[in-house]
Amino acid sequence: MKSEQTIVSEWITIEGPAHSIPVFTAQPGSQEVRPALILIHEIFAVNDHIKDLAVRFAQTGLRVFAPDLFSCSPQFPKDSKAKDDLTTMREVWAGIADSTLIDDLKAVLSKVKSTPNVLPDAIGTMGFCMGGAIAFMFASSTNKLAWAVDFYGRIKYPSLNDKKPKHPIDYANSQTPPILGIFAGQDELITPEHLELFKIQLEKLKVPFELKVFENCPHAFFNDRREHYKKEEAEQAWKMTLKFIEEHSRISSKKN
Fold first, then answer.
1. By the 8 A CB rule, do 154 and 68 touch?
2. Is the pTM for the entire model greater than 0.90?
3. Which pLDDT value is given to residue 255?
4. 103 pLDDT exceeds 90?
């Protein structure tokens, strides 16, 4: 994808099924019709890291929409420092049903598809950690996405409940779009057995997928603002991601 000189970023509001959804957008300044990315945040909501990523992807030519999926929660902290607390934000995430997250993302997708200068058949989604699992579930719950990228999202939850009634992998079906799964070999949240399940399930459903495990990396190795950042592997993952997006956006664009 070609690089754009000028990036325009702003917050917009999209009306979801039950509440308003704040969305950070970053787009090339040109009027050229381009593919789009729905970028799903980590457990820490839409923070500076996610905004930086949105701009970085926009510089490759994508129109990027990063919804803050936690703002609807009464437990969502107003204090920016509290948003950096893992325990606090896990409680926020645990209190929101996966079905609500998916429905909100479908509302975002509907808006993105109708946005001027977006190729409606070349929209994909991507997420990191918690957001990777949500991206996978979202992509498997609609037939309107061209691709999905899952950065070390849980494949199986530790347990199920009324808010999380199915494991992320159980959302996969024959309409799941092409998937790129990027995982860390030193991730205690995702075991080799989980990765094998990921492969078996997608192969059984004949879902096109690529799987890359960075064996010597810990969880969250792509995030350059966290202590587990691995520069060389993150750069390799970035190149793989851009190649995957370009290949599948080109295929989708020809359908338009």
1. no
2. yes
3. 39
4. yes
Intra-chain end-to-end CA distance of the chain, in Å:
18
For the record, the structure tokens of 207 come out as: 């879902």
Q: Are 215 and 183 in contact (CB under 8 A)?
A: no
What residues form DSSP beta bridges with 25?
10, 65
CATH number of 7-253: 3.40.50.1820
Residues 207-218: pLDDT tens digits?
A: 999 999 999 999
Listing DSSP states for the chain in one string gives ----S-EEEEEEEEE-SSSEEEEEEEEESS---EEEEEEE--TT-S-HHHHHHHHHHHTTT-EEEEE-TTTT-TT--SSTTGGG-HHHHHHHHHTS-HHHHHHHHHHHHHHHHTSTTEEEEEEEEEEETHHHHHHHHHHTT-S--SEEEEES--SS-SS--SSS-S-GGGG--TTPPPEEEEEEEE-TTS-HHHHHHHHHHHHHHT--EEEEEEEEEETTTT-TTSTT--HHHHHHHHHHHHHHHHHHHHHHHTT-
Torsions phi, psi of 62, nearest 5? -85, 150
111-127 burial, b at 16+ Cβ within 10 Å, e below that, comes to bbeeeeebbbbbbbbbb
